[in-house]
Each structure stands twice: as C-alpha cells, then as structure tokens.
C-alpha cells in the first residue's frame, strides 16, 4: 500500500515537468515577437528614410550642372566663335552704314536726271509763312525758270514742310495748291508740321532728300535768314568730295533745366553736372555730307531727338567719324563782311 503513493507522486512529478518548461518557451516566443516587430519597424523606417534621401539626391542631381562631354565643349566653343563673328559682322555693318553704304535700292535712287548734284538746300517753312516764302522767291532764292537753271548747275532748293495734324484739311490743300504753282516744295508726308515736332523734322528732311537726290551735300536753312547763294555754292565747291563733313557755325551753351523758360531742355540731366551742350552747328544753317545724311536715313528710327533740332543733329554726329568744320562765314549774326548768311 505504501508503494502506491510513491508511484503516484513520481507520476505527478513526471507530468509536471513539461508544464514548468513551457513557460520559458512562451516568454521567449513573446520576446521574439517583440524583437521581430522592433526590427521590422526599424527596417521600415530605414526604408522610408532611404526613399526620402533618394528623392533629395535626385532633385539635387537635376540642379547640378551637367558634366560636359568633349563634344559638348566643342559645341559650346563653336557657338562662342559664331557669336564673336556675328558681333564683328554687326560692327562692320554699322561702320559701313556710317560711311554711307546703302542697299541697292537706295543706291539707285537719286535725282530724276541722274546727274550728280552739288547740294540740296532745304529751307524750313510753316503753314503760316507764305509771305516769307514770297519774299525769299523774290530775293536770294530763284524762282520759275531760274530755279530750273540752278538745278542744272547742280543745286536744288526746296521749301521743306510736313503735313497738318488733320490730314487733308485746308492747310494741306493750300500747300498743295501753292506747290502746283511754284513747284519748289519738298513735302514730308510722314512728318507732322508743328513747333514741338521740329527736332524730328531734320530726320524726315535728310531721309527724304537723300533718297530723292544724289548730292554731295545736304543743307538745312531756317526761314529767318538771307543767303548769299553764290558764296554758299563756292564754299561747297571747295569742300566737294569730302566725306564725313559736318559744317556750320559751331557753338555750345548752357542747358536750360528750369521748365517754363525759353530753350528748356527736358533731358537736361543727361548733360552732366555742368549742364552744357556739346559742340554743334547752329540751327540757322547746317551742312552734312552725303554719307552723314545717309547715316541719318538708315538709322532714323533709333536716333534720339532733343528739345532743339541743332542739338539733336549734333548728338547724332558725336558717335561718328565726322569732321567738324567750324566756318565763321556761316554765323549769320557775325559782323564779317564775307559771311554767307545774315538774319532776315
């Protein structure tokens, strides 16, 4: 009987041992799951970080300059050489234009007779100046057949006028009627005749005249002076064949910066602290050689005008290889006995 409990106890111990060994296994399994979850989480986080870093590197690679191959470098060098040659060609073209070389169409244009003229003289006039024109026609300026004979000598004289702001009105009709009778006008179709537009009139006059006549000189004359025509012709004859000639009574003067005063210059600040104009031919009588007039014609769209026509023309000449000829005989207010012009 005593052996039975002993046997039962030994059986219970034998059965209880597996229960005791399963607890550590469960704990190990639990901790293994936690470790797996931790490692998986870290791996997922590392994968996300790598993805973000990859995107950042890709974006930075797009912003970095491309590594040029030998072919790319040769292409760049070729473009730079082509750009240099284009710039040189533009400089040569500008120089050629300044020297009076024109396209074929302009070269073929000239006087209707095909004869090389000495000069084209443009006398500025306005709509209300008919009386002045009649006085000129009876004094220093030939009229009728005498004007035609003067042209045979190589000198063309025309009154220069633009069009009315109201095209086709009585002002335009009166000029057209007067011109049909006298045939001594050069009408600037693209120019509006107004006092404030006077600086632009020089561009229109020179551009129109140089396309209409083939002359050595182009002369602008105000309508408040009298000319010694033969003296002017003699002066131009002695200068004939001289390119780049900018002739006149050269002067300078103060730039008027106070608005409302006579001769006010809106662009006064461009003339420096001294506020003094550069050297230029006085407005009463300005003479340009053919190549300078052609330069104005070619570049008229980009040439800057100032408040006065004489300073405007002078500013155009400053950037050219023009020969400034200061002739006191062209100073109309001078007391010289041999002066070419005088105040009317």
TrEMBL record:
Which one GO biological process term can you cite for this protein?
arabinogalactan protein metabolic process
Recorded GO cellular component terms are: Golgi membrane
Q: Which GO terms describe its molecular function?
A: hydroxyproline O-galactosyltransferase activity
Q: Where does this protein act, in terms of pathway?
A: Protein modification; protein glycosylation
Needed cofactors, names only, are: Mn(2+)
| One matching Pfam family | DUF4094
What EC number(s) is this enzyme filed under? 2.4.1.-
Occurrences of domain DUF4094 (ranges):
22-99
Q: Carries keyword Transmembrane helix? A: yes
Role played? Possesses hydroxyproline O-galactosyltransferase activity. Transfers galactose from UDP-galactose to hydroxyproline residues in the arabinogalactan proteins (AGPs). Is specific for AGPs containing non-contiguous peptidyl hydroxyproline residues. The addition of galactose onto the peptidyl hydroxyproline residues in AGP core proteins represents the first committed step in arabinogalactan polysaccharide addition. AGP glycans play essential roles in both vegetative and reproductive plant growth.
Q: Which PANTHER family match?
A: BETA-1,3-N-ACETYLGLUCOSAMINYLTRANSFERASE, HYDROXYPROLINE O-GALACTOSYLTRANSFERASE HPGT3
Q: What is this protein called?
A: Hexosyltransferase
What organism is the protein native to? Answer: Lithocarpus litseifolius
